[in-house]
Design goal:
This protein is mainly beta. Strand 9 and strand 10 form a beta hairpin. The strands form three sheets. Strands 1, 2, 3, 4 and 7 form a five-stranded antiparallel sheet that branches. A four-stranded antiparallel sheet has the order 10-9-8-11, with no helix packed on it. The chain is 8% helix and 35% strand. It contains one helix and eleven strands, in the order βββββββαββββ. The protein folds into two domains: 110 residues, Lipoxygenase-1; 40 residues, no CATH class. It comes from Phaetusa simplex (large-billed tern).
Length: 178
């Protein structure tokens, strides 16, 4: 339920002014703002110079209107620069802090050296590891303190006592069982 059917609006701010509130209407995808999807929009505006912040939010209407936004990347066709605005939060009246709009400042590459490489590694790691968190899997973590396993079951049960007789010793393990 990380996507939204609500109307999404953005205001872009640069050194020469702002766009005002613009609804994001036509994505290159048939359905916009779906979980795990990257949507691309064209927004026409005068050249704002270097961008420093955006305000993005939705109107809160429609079923399933809560939205988890990872990030926004704005590509400036004049300067060929990319501006990244990290969010990684909910825009949802029932989640996080209850806000359905966020003010995001630009992530400056000079402030975060290697940021693109870190983002790529994060995405690669998640792509490799997300299978572990699929519905129906049970997670087992070895607990070095108790010398047993902590089990997280698909039905939300947690067995924190674990099995102290497990043959795998004192090394950290994580197993997945379907």
């Amino acid at each position: 339920n990380a996507g939204t059917e609500a109307d999404v609006y953005v205001s872009v701010y640069g050194e020469r002014g702002d766009t005002g509130s613009r609804q994001l209407l036509r994505s290159q995808k048939p359905k916009k703002f779906l979980k795990g999807q990257t949507d691309v929009f064209a927004v026409e505006a005068v050249h704002l110079g270097h961008l420093y912040k955006i305000v993005i939010g939705h109107n809160g209407l429609g079923s399933g209107n809560g939205w988890f936004l990872d990030k926004v990347v704005i590509k400036d066709p004049i300067t060929d620069l990319d501006y990244t605005f990290l969010c990684h939060r909910w825009l949802d009246q029932g989640q996080d802090d209850g806000n359905i709009a966020r003010e995001l400042t630009v992530t400056d590459a000079s402030t975060f050296p290697g940021r693109q490489e870190l983002e790529l590694k994060r995405e690669e790691t998640w792509a490799a590891e997300k299978w572990k968190f699929q519905k129906g899997n049970t997670l087992q973590f070895y607990n070095r303190l108790t010398h047993g396993f902590i089990c997280l079951s698909p039905d939300s049960r947690v067995d924190a006592l674990g099995d102290k007789k497990n043959k795998y010793g004192k090394v950290f393990f994580m197993w997945m069982y379907a």
